[in-house]
Amino acid sequence: MSKLLESIQENVIFLLEFLGVVAAIFLVAYVAEKIAAKRNGETERILSTRKIAVIGMFSAIATILMLFEFPMPFAPDFYKLDFSELPALVGTFAFGPVAGVMIEFCKIVLKVLFKPTSTAFVGELANFAVGCSFLLPASIIYLFRKTKKTAIISCIVGTLCMTVFGTAFNAVYLLPKFAQLYGAPLDALIGMGTEINGAITNITTFVCFAVAPLNLIKGSSVSIITLAVYKSLSPILKQNTAKSKKQESAYN
Asked: What is the pLDDT of residue 252?
Protein backbone atom coordinates (compact mmCIF):
# COMPACT_ATOMS: atom_id res chain seq x y z
CA MET A 1 0.00 0.00 0.00
CA SER A 2 2.89 2.38 0.76
CA LYS A 3 4.26 1.84 -2.74
CA LEU A 4 0.83 2.60 -4.17
CA LEU A 5 0.59 5.87 -2.23
CA GLU A 6 4.09 6.85 -3.30
CA SER A 7 3.23 6.21 -6.96
CA ILE A 8 0.09 8.31 -6.61
CA GLN A 9 2.02 11.25 -5.16
CA GLU A 10 4.57 11.11 -7.98
CA ASN A 11 1.96 11.02 -10.75
CA VAL A 12 -0.83 13.36 -9.61
CA ILE A 13 -1.17 15.17 -12.94
CA PHE A 14 -1.29 11.96 -14.90
CA LEU A 15 -3.90 10.55 -12.51
CA LEU A 16 -6.05 13.64 -13.02
CA GLU A 17 -5.80 13.10 -16.78
CA PHE A 18 -6.72 9.46 -16.18
CA LEU A 19 -9.82 10.47 -14.23
CA GLY A 20 -10.77 12.93 -16.96
CA VAL A 21 -10.70 10.11 -19.52
CA VAL A 22 -12.80 7.94 -17.20
CA ALA A 23 -15.40 10.70 -16.74
CA ALA A 24 -15.62 11.34 -20.49
CA ILE A 25 -16.12 7.65 -21.27
CA PHE A 26 -18.79 7.31 -18.57
CA LEU A 27 -20.61 10.32 -20.03
CA VAL A 28 -20.61 8.84 -23.54
CA ALA A 29 -21.93 5.51 -22.21
CA TYR A 30 -24.63 7.18 -20.13
CA VAL A 31 -25.88 9.41 -22.96
CA ALA A 32 -25.97 6.49 -25.40
CA GLU A 33 -27.93 4.35 -22.96
CA LYS A 34 -30.41 7.14 -22.22
CA ILE A 35 -31.03 7.72 -25.93
CA ALA A 36 -31.56 4.01 -26.54
CA ALA A 37 -33.93 3.72 -23.56
CA LYS A 38 -36.01 6.64 -24.79
CA ARG A 39 -36.10 5.24 -28.32
CA ASN A 40 -37.18 1.79 -27.10
CA GLY A 41 -39.66 3.12 -24.52
CA GLU A 42 -37.79 1.50 -21.61
CA THR A 43 -38.19 2.81 -18.06
CA GLU A 44 -35.79 0.53 -16.18
CA ARG A 45 -33.06 2.31 -14.22
CA ILE A 46 -29.61 2.26 -15.78
CA LEU A 47 -28.15 0.90 -12.53
CA SER A 48 -30.62 -1.32 -10.69
CA THR A 49 -29.65 -3.30 -7.58
CA ARG A 50 -29.31 -6.49 -9.61
CA LYS A 51 -27.15 -4.78 -12.22
CA ILE A 52 -24.81 -3.44 -9.53
CA ALA A 53 -24.47 -6.92 -8.04
CA VAL A 54 -23.62 -8.45 -11.42
CA ILE A 55 -21.20 -5.60 -12.18
CA GLY A 56 -19.39 -6.36 -8.92
CA MET A 57 -19.19 -10.07 -9.72
CA PHE A 58 -17.97 -9.48 -13.28
CA SER A 59 -15.45 -6.88 -12.10
CA ALA A 60 -13.92 -9.47 -9.76
CA ILE A 61 -13.73 -12.02 -12.59
CA ALA A 62 -12.19 -9.40 -14.91
CA THR A 63 -9.60 -8.53 -12.26
CA ILE A 64 -8.56 -12.16 -11.94
CA LEU A 65 -8.31 -12.51 -15.71
CA MET A 66 -6.24 -9.32 -15.89
CA LEU A 67 -3.65 -10.85 -13.57
CA PHE A 68 -3.02 -13.65 -16.08
CA GLU A 69 -1.03 -12.05 -18.87
CA PHE A 70 0.51 -13.76 -21.86
CA PRO A 71 3.56 -12.32 -23.65
CA MET A 72 3.36 -11.99 -27.42
CA PRO A 73 6.36 -12.95 -29.57
CA PHE A 74 5.98 -9.82 -31.71
CA ALA A 75 5.84 -7.25 -28.87
CA PRO A 76 8.09 -6.11 -25.98
CA ASP A 77 7.43 -7.54 -22.50
CA PHE A 78 5.36 -4.54 -21.35
CA TYR A 79 2.71 -5.46 -23.94
CA LYS A 80 0.90 -8.62 -22.94
CA LEU A 81 -2.38 -10.29 -23.82
CA ASP A 82 -5.12 -10.75 -21.22
CA PHE A 83 -8.80 -11.64 -21.46
CA SER A 84 -10.21 -9.23 -18.89
CA GLU A 85 -12.52 -7.69 -21.51
CA LEU A 86 -14.46 -10.96 -21.73
CA PRO A 87 -16.71 -10.45 -18.65
CA ALA A 88 -16.94 -6.75 -19.51
CA LEU A 89 -18.30 -7.50 -23.00
CA VAL A 90 -20.77 -10.07 -21.67
CA GLY A 91 -21.89 -7.56 -19.03
CA THR A 92 -22.27 -4.73 -21.50
CA PHE A 93 -24.30 -6.89 -23.90
CA ALA A 94 -26.59 -7.88 -21.03
CA PHE A 95 -26.94 -4.54 -19.23
CA GLY A 96 -25.70 -1.77 -21.52
CA PRO A 97 -22.57 0.36 -22.02
CA VAL A 98 -22.64 1.95 -18.56
CA ALA A 99 -22.34 -1.49 -16.97
CA GLY A 100 -19.45 -2.37 -19.29
CA VAL A 101 -17.55 0.82 -18.47
CA MET A 102 -18.12 0.28 -14.75
CA ILE A 103 -16.75 -3.25 -15.00
CA GLU A 104 -13.67 -1.90 -16.78
CA PHE A 105 -13.13 0.82 -14.17
CA CYS A 106 -13.72 -1.40 -11.13
CA LYS A 107 -11.38 -3.97 -12.65
CA ILE A 108 -8.58 -1.40 -12.82
CA VAL A 109 -9.17 -0.22 -9.24
CA LEU A 110 -9.17 -3.77 -7.87
CA LYS A 111 -6.10 -4.73 -9.88
CA VAL A 112 -4.10 -1.77 -8.52
CA LEU A 113 -5.12 -2.68 -4.96
CA PHE A 114 -3.98 -6.28 -5.35
CA LYS A 115 -1.00 -5.64 -7.60
CA PRO A 116 0.49 -2.09 -7.50
CA THR A 117 1.23 -0.51 -10.85
CA SER A 118 4.58 -1.21 -12.47
CA THR A 119 4.02 1.26 -15.33
CA ALA A 120 3.28 4.51 -13.42
CA PHE A 121 -0.43 3.89 -14.15
CA VAL A 122 0.15 4.19 -17.90
CA GLY A 123 -0.61 0.51 -18.39
CA GLU A 124 -3.81 0.81 -16.38
CA LEU A 125 -4.97 3.82 -18.40
CA ALA A 126 -4.13 1.97 -21.62
CA ASN A 127 -6.10 -1.08 -20.52
CA PHE A 128 -9.13 0.97 -19.51
CA ALA A 129 -9.24 3.39 -22.45
CA VAL A 130 -8.43 0.81 -25.11
CA GLY A 131 -10.83 -1.69 -23.54
CA CYS A 132 -13.62 0.90 -23.59
CA SER A 133 -12.84 1.71 -27.23
CA PHE A 134 -13.83 -1.91 -27.85
CA LEU A 135 -16.83 -2.10 -25.52
CA LEU A 136 -18.53 1.21 -26.34
CA PRO A 137 -18.95 0.79 -30.11
CA ALA A 138 -19.93 -2.86 -29.71
CA SER A 139 -22.45 -2.23 -26.94
CA ILE A 140 -24.00 0.87 -28.52
CA ILE A 141 -24.61 -0.93 -31.82
CA TYR A 142 -26.09 -3.93 -30.01
CA LEU A 143 -28.12 -1.68 -27.71
CA PHE A 144 -30.32 -0.43 -30.55
CA ARG A 145 -31.00 -3.82 -32.15
CA LYS A 146 -30.46 -6.98 -30.11
CA THR A 147 -30.11 -9.73 -32.71
CA LYS A 148 -27.41 -12.31 -33.30
CA LYS A 149 -26.45 -10.68 -36.59
CA THR A 150 -26.10 -7.30 -34.89
CA ALA A 151 -24.03 -8.89 -32.12
CA ILE A 152 -21.58 -10.23 -34.71
CA ILE A 153 -21.42 -6.88 -36.50
CA SER A 154 -20.95 -5.02 -33.21
CA CYS A 155 -18.03 -7.28 -32.21
CA ILE A 156 -16.35 -6.76 -35.58
CA VAL A 157 -16.78 -2.98 -35.34
CA GLY A 158 -15.60 -2.98 -31.71
CA THR A 159 -12.48 -4.97 -32.60
CA LEU A 160 -11.62 -2.64 -35.48
CA CYS A 161 -12.22 0.46 -33.31
CA MET A 162 -10.00 -0.94 -30.56
CA THR A 163 -7.26 -1.77 -33.05
CA VAL A 164 -7.31 1.68 -34.66
CA PHE A 165 -7.78 3.65 -31.43
CA GLY A 166 -5.29 1.57 -29.45
CA THR A 167 -2.65 1.98 -32.13
CA ALA A 168 -3.13 5.75 -32.40
CA PHE A 169 -3.47 6.29 -28.63
CA ASN A 170 -0.21 4.46 -27.97
CA ALA A 171 1.66 6.43 -30.63
CA VAL A 172 0.33 9.87 -29.74
CA TYR A 173 -0.02 9.70 -25.95
CA LEU A 174 0.75 6.49 -24.06
CA LEU A 175 4.28 5.70 -25.23
CA PRO A 176 5.52 9.32 -24.95
CA LYS A 177 3.86 9.62 -21.51
CA PHE A 178 5.42 6.32 -20.38
CA ALA A 179 8.84 7.56 -21.45
CA GLN A 180 8.26 10.91 -19.69
CA LEU A 181 7.14 9.43 -16.38
CA TYR A 182 10.04 6.99 -16.31
CA GLY A 183 12.57 9.55 -17.48
CA ALA A 184 13.62 7.26 -20.32
CA PRO A 185 14.13 8.29 -23.96
CA LEU A 186 11.42 7.16 -26.34
CA ASP A 187 14.13 5.68 -28.55
CA ALA A 188 14.89 3.18 -25.80
CA LEU A 189 11.33 1.84 -25.94
CA ILE A 190 11.47 1.67 -29.72
CA GLY A 191 14.77 -0.17 -29.42
CA MET A 192 13.06 -2.87 -27.37
CA GLY A 193 10.75 -3.41 -30.31
CA THR A 194 13.63 -3.41 -32.79
CA GLU A 195 15.25 -6.26 -30.88
CA ILE A 196 12.18 -8.37 -31.57
CA ASN A 197 11.35 -7.18 -35.07
CA GLY A 198 13.94 -5.46 -37.26
CA ALA A 199 11.15 -3.72 -39.17
CA ILE A 200 10.40 -1.61 -36.07
CA THR A 201 12.50 1.53 -36.50
CA ASN A 202 10.28 4.34 -35.19
CA ILE A 203 7.12 4.92 -33.19
CA THR A 204 4.87 4.40 -36.24
CA THR A 205 6.29 1.00 -37.10
CA PHE A 206 6.34 0.15 -33.39
CA VAL A 207 2.60 0.57 -32.97
CA CYS A 208 1.79 -0.98 -36.36
CA PHE A 209 3.82 -4.16 -35.81
CA ALA A 210 3.45 -4.57 -32.04
CA VAL A 211 0.36 -2.77 -30.74
CA ALA A 212 -2.09 -3.25 -33.63
CA PRO A 213 -1.70 -7.06 -33.87
CA LEU A 214 -2.09 -7.40 -30.10
CA ASN A 215 -5.39 -5.48 -30.08
CA LEU A 216 -6.65 -7.34 -33.13
CA ILE A 217 -5.94 -10.71 -31.52
CA LYS A 218 -7.49 -9.64 -28.23
CA GLY A 219 -10.65 -8.21 -29.76
CA SER A 220 -11.16 -11.19 -32.05
CA SER A 221 -10.67 -13.82 -29.35
CA VAL A 222 -12.87 -12.04 -26.79
CA SER A 223 -15.58 -11.56 -29.45
CA ILE A 224 -15.57 -15.23 -30.48
CA ILE A 225 -15.85 -16.45 -26.89
CA THR A 226 -18.58 -13.93 -26.04
CA LEU A 227 -20.67 -14.85 -29.07
CA ALA A 228 -20.31 -18.52 -28.15
CA VAL A 229 -21.43 -18.18 -24.50
CA TYR A 230 -23.70 -15.13 -24.37
CA LYS A 231 -26.90 -16.86 -25.48
CA SER A 232 -26.61 -19.34 -22.58
CA LEU A 233 -25.62 -16.76 -19.97
CA SER A 234 -28.10 -14.01 -20.81
CA PRO A 235 -31.27 -15.62 -19.33
CA ILE A 236 -29.36 -16.39 -16.12
CA LEU A 237 -28.04 -12.85 -15.79
CA LYS A 238 -31.49 -11.38 -16.37
CA GLN A 239 -33.34 -13.98 -14.24
CA ASN A 240 -35.14 -15.18 -17.36
CA THR A 241 -37.81 -12.50 -17.09
CA ALA A 242 -40.43 -12.03 -19.79
CA LYS A 243 -38.50 -9.08 -21.13
CA SER A 244 -35.25 -11.02 -21.36
CA LYS A 245 -37.02 -13.92 -23.06
CA LYS A 246 -38.30 -11.54 -25.71
CA GLN A 247 -34.82 -10.08 -26.23
CA GLU A 248 -33.16 -13.46 -26.43
CA SER A 249 -35.71 -14.76 -28.91
CA ALA A 250 -34.61 -11.87 -31.11
CA TYR A 251 -30.95 -12.85 -30.52
CA ASN A 252 -31.73 -16.24 -31.98
From this structure: 47
